[in-house]
Amino acid sequence: MSDTILEMRNITKTFPGVAALQDVSIVVRRGEIHAICGENGAGKSTLMKVLSGVYPAGSYEGEIIFDGRPVHFRGIRDSEAQGVVIIHQELALVPHLSIAENIFLGNERCGRTGLIDWNRANADATALLESVGLRENAVTPIVALGVGKQQLVEIAKALSKEVKLLILDEPTAALNDVDSAHLLDLLRRLRDRGITCIMISHKLGEITAIADSITVLRDGRTVERLDVRSAEVTQDRIIRGMVGRDLHSFYPDRVSSPGEEVLRVENWTVRHPTQDRRVVDDVSFTVRAGEVVGIAGLMGAGRTELAMSMFGRSYGRDITGRLFLRGREIRARTVAEAIGNGIAYATEDRKRYGLNLIDDIRHNVSAAALRKLARFGWVHDNEEIRVAEASRRDMNIKAPSVMATVGKLSGGNQQKVVLSKWLFTDPEVLILDEPTRGIDVGAKFEIYTIVNRLVAQGKAVVMISSELPELLGMCDRIYTLAAGRLTGELPVSEATQEKLMQLMAKDKEPAR
Amino acid sequence: MTDVKSSSTGQGPSADQAPARALHTGISDPRTLVMRNLRQSGIFVALVVIVALFAVLTDGVSLSPGNITNIVLQYSYILVLAIGMVIVIIGGHIDLSVGSVVALTGSVSAVLVIQQGHPWWLGVLAALAVGLAVGAWHGFWVAYAGIPAFIVTLAGMLLFRGLTLRVLDNISLSPFPAEYQRIAAGFLNGLLGGQGFDAFTLLIGGVAVAGYAVSGFRTRVARIRYQQPVESFPLFVARVVLVGAVVMYFAWQLAHARGLPIVLIVLAVLVLAYGLLTRRTVFGRQVYAIGGNLPAAMLSGVKVRTVNFWVFVNMGFLSAVAGIIYSSRSNGAQPAAGNMFELDAIAAAFIGGAAVTGGVGTVVGAMVGGLIMAVMSNGMQLMGVDQSMQSVVKGLVLLVAVAFDVYNKRRAGASR
Fold first, then answer.
1. Residues with Cβ < 8 Å from B34, sequence gap 6 or more?
2. Helix (H, G, I), strand (E, B) or coil at A489
3. Residue ranges covered by each domain of chain A
4. Domain A259-342+427-507 CATH class label
């Protein structure tokens, strides 16, 4: 048996218009914990989906050598049969089934009759639960467990499949400190039993604490492999690898002249809609007229949750805190109220939350402010066309007419429709959540230009982005969020990617 | 730019890129133009084919003046229900209770008018009030309690059927006074005198055609002023002439039978009003927005609950209208009245192009869908086809219509 359990060589995976992975290679030794680091969108999850067969052989280029043999997984079942098990960030458990039923789902313990042997299943499940240190009855339904315990059930499920290589995607993102520490401890014990782990995590403290080696990805390419055992690897060292790219100067120039304060948020706190934890914790910030304020944070830091909870309480429960617009406290308990007060929120997921894809540009543009086009509930449809046409021209939306179905436009043009919709509400504060996600470079530049034009008109813009260069290129000030808390505020002149990343990854060191 | 080069030679590889290119340049070859409009025009074509088919199969009896009048009278209440149903379906819901509500409203009216001897208009008002109350009940549970409409209206179907039996005390009531009967069986004729045909009916038909032409022309002029693409002028004229010819033929046939049915006027007013309501009002547009993408509608400030509530109130109102027409036509109230009407109404909406997932559909489409069902049932009855086969055929037509819609959508998704 060789010392290397997995080698992925020159993996290239492209989606229409985007190269998600280019020539990525990683080497994982047998019985180690291998961490994969990178910014959002660096290609970590894509790489793991290639490895686990979610993207079947043939849909990517390059080769995978597992356990000394080249493998071509055609699907999850294929990879699991070989002992590669992936645990996704969103846990894949069925809430109303018991622990045992979940563990053996698709892999049922059957007797000779072909019927499920529940005694055996529950006994096996109990043994597995013991091995992951979870003291629960195997017949307990999943809904009765917290996220931390559910995570352990997932691992027990993986163990039931005689796992050789366990892949965990952000396993601690939703866990509190105690549960995280438990989980990391378990991973160490699994390693001692000879199970190799690949772990994707944004929490650099965790990684330096637990990983034996690290592969750093950036923009879909392998940057470097760091060996933690042979040399001291600091968080700063990892960050340098993650962000060390050239800052392309494709951000249009803008003369910054912020005016008076437009939006002030005080002590904003939001709880998770179903779990007992604070997703946004006592956040306060301000935005001035003619200013672009960035909000940086890793996945799960609470950026979108902050924005959506401010926007008419579209997210979360038990929301406390105060909103001030031009010094006057406002109520924004519903989306309609928020819009009426001059707040607009352009979502990060335009297809699910931003657009009616089966309708045309015209109706989408007017959707958030239809009453402006109506008298006594009667829509002035020619005026609506004029508004939509004006947007199409101003935003340079590429479509044959405003009657074109939005679902058929490209991502960049869809995003311009979303922006048109919100600009038509004539907002004072425009919150842009990942405004350039999944759109090509040309369209990005156009979006940046539009944002600059708005700011020049005195609008206040809040920009949430996972791309630090974008924030550095566009913003006047940048706030950082980590685990729902505000961890820093930097004027762009002082901000660097390294500094931001340090603030974004600021979490308590996990217990050793 | 290799694909530009290859497209200029018009050869193979560019074919699959045609939709994308058309999107950006505004040029669409005839094939994509036809395919894009297939969904809308498809049902009209289907209706024409079915009408022609049964005209042949019945040796023209199905197009005889008497039979056309009959179709109108016999299916008017289904069409009224289909108007409400298509709005419910556009909003992403369903209503299984309308048959029971038709029975309940009719029986309340019958009890008041027949049993207790109140004037006919009181029965009408009471039926409408009951319909609105039922709609508010459904609306409350769907919009504010958040219960899926399928469940709420399934419960309503049982609930209101049960109440019908109680109101009627399990017996049929009959007959209504003559004024009440006139609602569904009455005709407006002889107002302008008759020379073997009813001139008034023809006049109304002519007014309708003129109105259609004028409003179409005005829309067209406005569209051109706002620099929107419009159909070519000959095509526009052809469309108006075609519609005009069909309407006038229809009016001519009616005029030679018993004249203009009152229900037809009621139906025409409803179709016109609801056509405008769905396309031209904030309310109507919000229904489409909710059905098309609920979270996006919420995040656009649409008051989803309020809109859903009124969608169901409206369905209750139209159920009451249908209940009045039905009780008038059957000249009484029966415990089993309106049985399975909901399925005919739902089928009409889906055949007429409404999408199962919501957000798509038109009142006119639902009317055409309803007429397809009506012409088929009527034609098969004329041919003496067995009841069982009629059901089989109707079921298959519904399935094929929705399968076509789903296929169409998948194809559109693939070319994205």
1. none
2. strand
3. 4-243, 259-342+427-507, 349-425
4. alpha beta
Instruction: Mark A358-392 as b/e (b = at least 16 C-beta within 10 Å).
Output: bbbbbbbbbbbbbeebbeeeebebeebbbbbbebb
pLDDT digits (tens, 9 = 90+) for B268-279: 999 999 999 999
Q: A370 vs B285: CB contact, 8 Å cut-off?
A: yes
Mean pLDDT, to the nearest integer, of A506-512? 49
Q: What domains, with CATH codes, occur in chain B?
A: 78-189+258-414 (1.10.3470)
Q: How far apart are CA A177 and CA A189, in angstroms?
A: 19
Q: Does B280 touch chain A (CB under 8 A)?
A: yes
Q: Which residue of A has its CA nearest to B286?
A: A367
pLDDT for residue B31: 52
Q: Look at B23 and A368 and tell me if their CB atoms are within 8 Å.
A: no
Average pLDDT, chain A: 88
Q: Do A357 and B293 touch (CB under 8 A)?
A: yes
pLDDT at residue A266 greater than cutoff 70: yes
Taking a C-beta distance cutoff of 8 angstroms, is the pair A47, A213 a contact? Answer: no
Interface test with B, best of A371, A381, A405 (most B CBs within 10 A): A381
Model confidence band, residue A1 (pLDDT cutoffs 50, 70, 90)? low
- Residue B292: list chain A partners with CB under 8 A: 356-359
Tokens of A122: 């529950």
Do A212 and A181 meet the contact criterion of CB atoms below 8 Å apart?
no
**CB A355 to CB B300 under 8 A?**
no
Is residue B198 classed as helix, strand or coil in its secondary structure?
strand
pLDDT, one tens digit per residue, over A390-399 is 999 999 888 8
Q: What per-residue confidence (pLDDT) applies to B4?
A: 36
Question: How high does pLDDT run on average in chain B?
Answer: 85
Residue whose pair of structure tokens reads 């289909």 in the numeric block: B82
- DSSP category for residue B323: H
The token pair that represents B411 in the structure block: 């194809």
Mean pLDDT score, A166-181 = 82
Interatomic CA distance for residues A407 and A360, integer angstroms: 8
Interface contact B292, partner A, CB < 8 A: yes
Q: Is there a common fold for A4-243 and A259-342+427-507?
A: yes
- Of A99-103, A466-470, B288-292, B401-405, the one with minimum mean pLDDT is B401-405
**Are the C-beta atoms of B213 and B244 separated by less than 8 Å?**
yes
Question: Using omega within 30 degrees of 0 as the cis cutoff, is the peptide bond preceding B175 cis?
Answer: yes
CA separation for the pair A51, A76 (Å, rounded) = 9
Which of B49-58, B93-102, B250-259 has the lowest average pLDDT? B250-259
Distance from CA of B222 to the nearest CA of A (A): 7
Structure tokens at B337: 């009245």
Q: Which CATH class is domain A4-243?
A: alpha beta
